[in-house]
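Appendix B.2, paired examples.
Example (i):
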Amino acid sequence: MNRTKYFNYIFDKLNELAYKIESKGKLNILDLHMQAENFYLHLLNLIFDWKLQNLNTQLQNVAAIDLIDNTENKIIVQVSATNTKDKIEKTLKKEIIKTHSDFNFKFVSISKDAAELREKTYKNPYLINFNPVNDIFDINSILNIILASDLDKQKLIYKFILKELGNEIDMVKLDSNLATIINILSKENWARNKEKLQFDIDKKISHNNLIRAKKNIEKYSVYHNRLDKIYSEFDLNGVNKSLSVVEKISRVYIQNQNINNEDELFFHVIDEVAQIIMESANFIEIAIDELELCVDILVVDAFIRCEIFENPEL
């Protein structure tokens, strides 16, 4: 298994856990939260080489602190499904923070994005070491750190997650829907399927500083409505099969957001999606120009659906 496939598995499993935590009812959230504490204890230790322990196994239901590293690292961690400024400030006011003011405080949001929290300032009455930019973690920031890790580290993390959360992904099956839809698209006569797009595409292109990609997006956006119909037919063979295709493209985009130039990122997504398709056991080989046409249509469609690049309306 290569670096990309290790990361794909890690990506899926962390987001799956976050979804479970977010969607669970109040009766089950406590048990799931306790499981998440122990899961993140080991995950953070693997990622950062910390020596965290679960403080709740030593002192039951300690307010504010879930995990602690008493070595020279001096780290305390709160693992939370609630990610608000108020939650963090209430934690920072707890008495136990006063007795650990020489430690470094970390906050881990295990279900929701915490990007906005990293931009805020916080009341920190006991002046514990806490830098919101570097010390507030969420799924995306943790995944970015894992993505930048070397292959050996990713392999360790992959093995841990596989052991804890199970169900190793069948990569052939994972990519098969993408390859299958390409096989279907390659049989279409696209020259007869151009329709005007009911979408202010120029606004999104401008918002995302896409200059070289603008021509491609405008050229292939006329096939969006036809592709939508093909997706509907495709879904008749299985629930949300088309969703798996769109999410695969979205995943490729997310994994490559370290590419700072928007145009380069756009064309890199196209190249990587094409490579994934060609490597799939389910792909029926077609001419390269046909493959490129189909991939362009798929990626532009994902752009229109706001699955890749920023939505100017948000």
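Example (ii):
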Amino acid sequence: MRRVPTAALIGALLALLTLARLPSAWASGNALNHVSGAWMALADDLAHGLLYRPVRDPALGFGGTRFFPLTFALEAVLFRAGLPLVVAGQLLALAAGLSAALGAAHFLRRAGHTLPAAAGLGALPLAGFAGQLGLASARGDLPAAALSIWGLSCLLPDPRRPGARTVGKGGIAAVLFVLAFLAKPTALAAAAAGTAFLWRSGERGPAVRLTMRVAVGCALALAAVDVLSAGRFHELLGGLGTGGAHLAGLVHAPLRLAEVMVREDPAGLVLLAAAGSALLGRHPSAAARSPALLLASLWLASSLATVLAVLASPGTGVNHLLELEAAAALLAGSALSPPRTRLAGPGGLSRLVSAAAALAAAVSLFTSAAAWRRDRAGSRIAEAREALDAAREGAPAPLLSEDPLVPLLGGERPFALDAWMLRIEADRDPTVAAALVERLRSGGFRAVVLLRAVDAPDAEEWFSHELGSAALAEIRQRWRPALAVGPYHVYRFAEAGPPSERLP
């Protein structure tokens, strides 16, 4: 009987701990930051019949996003079915997390692992902080990663059926890759890895067919979304798709990646170290004997390229590391599968990869336990409700909140969909900034809810990315603090003036 790797045993413990802590994470909502609120606001708009609101709308307020629709469309369906928005997002995240773990286990079974080992190692894609965050934060990263893992797994041959062809499953893989793209465009890294894998494996025809299917599928999907949104989708991507990225940001992206991983995601960093050990110690003929090792290596390379491109955009963060860490987990897991001769010098290097993968799972155990303690000690949802209560009284005017979750908890349509995208659009179009400033100047909101105090030491830096410096100056001059609770700071208008019913 084959020995189950230590990493698999710790991975099984991680899976159990994660499932145990999720109820507290969901109840507290501590992982639901303003980005999660933007996803939910998009779902709320769609549930009301609007796919992608305009950047500036007289009735709704300000829009603007570069999020792709699959995840929030599914949330909207669950919302229309009667689930609260927060519950819908969390339920979808749980389904995506379970799917990612099952997909990873299927991939590792194709790599040659026994069922118990594959099941334990299947938790490793969620071992990093990015994966743990995705399980509780209701965003599009985890569904995209889950679909990517399953798409790649469909391309692997089954070691229990020697000689069986898998290229017939290329159509299924193409569908999964297109769906992953509709959840998050950077998921095309998996499709690129799949094509390169087929090509390197001598399956040139299937590689070309996979590329064509994915390209046609993505093009048709984009066209359909654009038609359903009355052309707003391509307008948003054209203006906001880069997220403010620039050449200098691309040059500094490797440093940003290292900084984010060291500061926020040490478990993910150890996972990458395990994958790096496997790559350095790979036997020259390993790719021929282990298709899974080759495929995971290609996905690691392609996802690293996309992560660096994403981190060139200011305001992006640790959640974008999920696909990279999932690829690293699959690579490390594939390297640990028998025969051990896939690693040159199997004794030392195999133990190194196994130890690094086990350490990553162990670090994640401590991270998960710490998050559980925080979730039991406080609740962001409770703080958001308290901020909402403080902002209820006043003239019948909209609520301007950096975090759309606050008005959503009160059953309101958020006036600002995404404060980050609003600032980017304001930089491009001065009339957008002028409209917001004029409304702040005239007291056109019953309250303003910010995620930083306007006199905080880092206020200038924060609001240079969120809402904008002009809005900060106006709030400092005419609005006064009413309440500070958790991350929320509620401000009320301090100068007389009738609330504006519509945007200028």
